[in-house]
């Protein structure tokens, strides 16, 4: 009786994204990789910081995603910062294009994870936060932390 694992294993995460952007919508996308890149990602050598996605001629590419060269890859290694094609349906790309044509919206990868042995990207439509928005979010988080601390002390 073999059970299929539906647990997604996160391999890389863009932690700064939720701090710098308001996330409007997110979706799962496949990514076109070569074998040594997959091995490197599985080893945890991927970095999503400062990466973004762009739609060019009806195809969507992720840029500035750094995947370190695989140690045992020798001649098969590719450029760590090369553009990588994302795999989405035409309708999904059209919907994302509609978002990105609006002022202030961009596409950013939130995380890389494994799903049934394949590397997937969690792609988000995001709108940049202003500095005062970031301060408000930090104040809100601090207030919630203080309230939780007070409640915990009161329940003792």
From TrEMBL:
InterPro entries: SmpB, SsrA-bd_prot, SsrA-bd_prot_CS. SUPFAM superfamilies: Small protein B (SmpB) (SSF74982). It is found in: Cytoplasm. Gene3D superfamilies: 2.40.280.10. GO terms for molecular function: RNA binding. The keyword Hydrolase does not apply. Keywords: Cytoplasm, RNA-binding. One of its GO terms (cellular component) is cytosol. One of its GO terms (biological process) is trans-translation. It comes from the Bacteria. Its main location: cytoplasm. The keyword Transport does not apply. HAMAP family: SmpB (MF_00023). Required for rescue of stalled ribosomes mediated by trans-translation. Binds to transfer-messenger RNA (tmRNA), required for stable association of tmRNA with ribosomes. tmRNA and SmpB together mimic tRNA shape, replacing the anticodon stem-loop with SmpB. tmRNA is encoded by the ssrA gene; the 2 termini fold to resemble tRNA(Ala) and it encodes a 'tag peptide', a short internal open reading frame. During trans-translation Ala-aminoacylated tmRNA acts like a tRNA, entering the A-site of stalled ribosomes, displacing the stalled mRNA. Belongs to the SmpB family. This is SsrA-binding protein. The gene is smpB.
């Amino acid at each position: 009786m073999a059970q299929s694992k539906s647990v997604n294993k996160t391999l890389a995460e863009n932690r700064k994204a939720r701090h710098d952007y308001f996330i409007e919508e997110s979706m799962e996308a496949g990514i076109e990789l070569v074998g040594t890149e997959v091995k490197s990602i599985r080893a945890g050598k991927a970095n999503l910081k400062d990466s973004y996605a762009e739609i060019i001629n009806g195809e969507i590419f992720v840029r500035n995603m750094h995947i370190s060269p695989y140690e045992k890859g020798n001649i098969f290694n590719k450029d760590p910062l090369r553009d990588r094609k994302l795999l989405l349906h035409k309708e999904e790309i059209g919907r994302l294009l509609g978002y990105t044509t609006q002022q202030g919206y961009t596409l950013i990868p939130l995380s890389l994870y494994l799903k049934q042995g394949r590397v997937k990207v969690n792609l988000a439509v995001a709108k940049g936060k202003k500095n005062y928005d970031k301060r408000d979010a930090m104040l809100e988080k601090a207030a919630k932390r203080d309230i939780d601390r007070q409640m915990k002390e009161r329940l003792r």
